[in-house]
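yo

u said u wanted the structure for the complex thing, so here. seqs first:
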Amino acid sequence: MRILGISAYYHDSAAALVRDGTIVAAAQEERFSRKKHDARFPRGAAAYCLAAEGVKLREIDVVVFYDKPWLKFERMLETYLGYAPRGLASFLTAMPLWLKEKLNLRSVLEKELRALDPEAPKLAPLLFTEHHQAHAASAFFASPFQRAAVLCLDGVGEWATTSLWLGADNELTPCWEVDFPHSLGLLYSAFTYYTGFKVNSGEYKVMGLAPYGEPRYVDLIYRHLIDLKADGTFRLNTDYFNYATGLTMTNERFHALFGGPPRKPESPLTQREMDLAASIQAVTEEVVARLARTARREIDAEYLCLAGGVALNCVANGKLLREGLFRDLWVQPAAGDAGGAVGAALAAWHIHHRQPRHSNGGTDSMDGAFLGPSFSDGEIAQSLAASGAVYRRLDDDALCSEVARILAEGKVVGWFQGRMEFGPRALGSRSIIGDPRKPEMQAAMNLKIKFRESFRPFAPSVLAERASDIFELDRPSPYMALVAPVKESLRIPMTEEQQRLFGIDKLNVPRSSVPAITHVDYSARIQTVHRETNQRFHELIRRFEALTGCPVLVNTSFNVRGEPIVCTPEQAYRCFMRTGIDFLVLENFILAKDDQPAAEADDSWRREFELD
Amino acid sequence: MGLLKDLWGFARERKKFWLIPLIGTLLVLSVLVAIAQYSTVAPFIYTLF
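structre next:
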């Protein structure tokens, strides 16, 4: 049985195809449409999933959508009624879209699906899962566990913003939920907005900014914004927020509480924003920790699965792991709404169709998250020829040796291999990589290659078998879902003068023997690279280690700021040519920037991609 | 028709029958606004009032 899962119309639309319980393809629409966080129906992603399986839509048995629009509409109406007459402007903005399109989602979806296969005699039945059910299914059914507690934390779906489930075999049993407007995700997003970043994409920046600050506002947050109970459940004081009825996240009362209006986007960051980020991060970690303790107490399970946008907070995940409540935890790599497509499809298979599920207890079923398109040598050669690129083709052995040498010389490489990753992280298929030992690498990659804020940290990719030699981490983290400290022995102690530095001044102090991936608090967002799922990338790091003694590379996504991660060889070449990347490797093809035909200075990405 | 079926299914499942008049009114209004956008049909609407 083939099931097509769809998430769309809110943010990060995606499609996933599940055949007899196995995830065979999944991709986010933004990679095809080139519009970051694209929320439209995932035409490109769905067409890719069908092509990857070699079928037409008529051969799909079930289509399943990750959300129940009528439940969401119920929440919206009851919220507007509850707050009336406040919220009239928001009501008038939302209603036309809902009455015209979203409420009639069944026919909108049918129309879109029909466009994928206009000659299809009839369409497959259309099912709808609840939003948190899709998240929970994406976390549990794809995990390596046969029995686990499942915690979903996000902004909001229909009503639920936080939910606890018991996952056992092929069943997901809901335990309890916290409902809108009380939402940890929206609380975090409110601070994202207030510190001048974009809601639904700037949350990573707040997390990255937090270690530069001091959590000075924690008491204020607990006193005024969130009533956190001992069991981790909470209520927000809605007097300080505007998202339930307005078109912004925070209101004047919130601004007065924190002493001023929100920071203007792209204006200089001050210590205040850093302290605010540190404070909301500390509160989030405490809420997540208490919820996990409750899950451990209430549910007879030794493992924990996490999904929902808040589960992308890898700092909170790492702290949870170190608390040792559960034997292990597993975070869905596409924990945000895109992962809902996978979850919805798996829920249809295991719950609706009652199909059994057997995990082997060791590996998950995400296949390293390499579920997207790949390109043959022929396709790449054709694309490079069309671009007038100058390239060489090397065999596997020569390629890894040469790229390792180039990296050891301090050059930056665009690394394009195999199937594209599903989820927000680049894991060695569509990555920009570099030498983490170079102290100047972080600033160079941020400013000359990614064109993004200099404070943002980079993640390390480390050989799985060497991870515990470099980091205080005793288990795999193949999806960069966990943050752990760099080993004490590799750290460089700070001088007294350096210790007195505040905020962003800390950035330029080398923290360890791998400074480019060591954040100011000595932490790192780790990707363990496994030979079984990531063979060529593993081999490359092995060769790099043989040359340098360092089993780690800097790994960041292959894109510039605001651009979706590259999907095709054309996009990779274009990104390579308009940034400071020194070499591009596409499967076995290698291109040096110096050999390429001179390109005119190209800053068109600034117009093409809206800053995130 | 599918929309009305979904509305009834939703109200029954969630036991939210009290929302039906509200949603019904919104739907009727939206249909009227949509019809009013077609100039050829507009006089018909006008004669109703």
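The mean pLDDT of chain A is 95. Chain A touches chain B through 13 residues (CB under 8 Å).
cya
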